[in-house]
Every structure is written in structure tokens, then in C-alpha cells.
Amino acid sequence: MKVLSRKERLDDLNAVAIFVVHDQPELVRRTMLADLDVPFPIAVDIERVFYDAWGLGRGSLFATWLSPRVWLSYGRLLVRGGERYRGSGRDTLQLGGDFVIDSNGVVAYARPQRRDDRPPVAVLLRELDRASSG
């Protein structure tokens, strides 16, 4: 969770990162959040109301688990030591997304996920800068 290291920058921008998950809280604590001190709110959306409202679809089996690109990406992270496998949730095909909402409640940046292709945190911070100055 690279955004954890950018908490101070988010505070400088008067911004909050909110994580939305679709698994039971106990499973999320045991997997995604294991050994992490996450200073951001985490919303549980088991019925996926938010996922549907934001148009976040589902990945195909090929794009999610059979793609060599995905495995190379995970391999690089593990070799660098910056990440470790944390287990998986109940639906590994559900895609997420990244959004920046400005102070007027308007979506200033939207990036639905297509596979394991989340934007770098630096991109999100740049969009936050843009939204807060506009």
C-alpha cells in the first residue's frame, strides 16, 4: 500500500484516502491489512453498491490470473522486497478504481481498474493538487 508512505502529503493537501473493500472485515484484517497500521478510513461494501455506482466491473480470468504481465508485475514487487503476498479475498475478479473528488463533490479524476494496473500514487497526488487549486 504505497499510499501509506504519502500520508503527510495527503494531510498537506487536506485530503483523505478512503479504501473500499468488498470482503468481510475479519478477512480484510487477516489479509490486506495484516501487520499494517492504516491511518485511513476503510469502508466495507459487501453488496458492492459503491462498486456498481462507480462502474467498477469484473476482470476476466485471463486478464487477472493468467496474464504473464500480471505475474511479472507481482514477481518484481516480491523480489524488491517492498511487498509480500497477503492472501486473497473471496472474489479476485472484482476490479477496483481510483478517484479524486474535489471540495465541491465533483469527480476531478476517475481511473477504473482494468487489471493489476493502478496508477502510481504520484499521479493521484498530482490530480489532488490540480483539484485543490482549481
What does this protein structure show overall?
Strand 1 (19-21), helix 2 and strand 2 (42-44) form a beta-alpha-beta unit. This protein has 134 residues and is α+β, with helices and mostly antiparallel strands. It has six helices and four strands. The strands form two sheets. It has a two-stranded parallel sheet. It has a two-stranded antiparallel sheet with strand order 3-4. The protein has a single domain, classed as Glutaredoxin (3-Layer(aba) Sandwich), CATH 3.40.30. The two termini are 28 Å apart.
Offer a few descriptive terms.
globular; 4 strands; alpha+beta; 37% helix; single chain; Glutaredoxin; two-stranded antiparallel sheet
Give a quick precis of the structure.
By secondary structure, the protein is of the alpha+beta class.
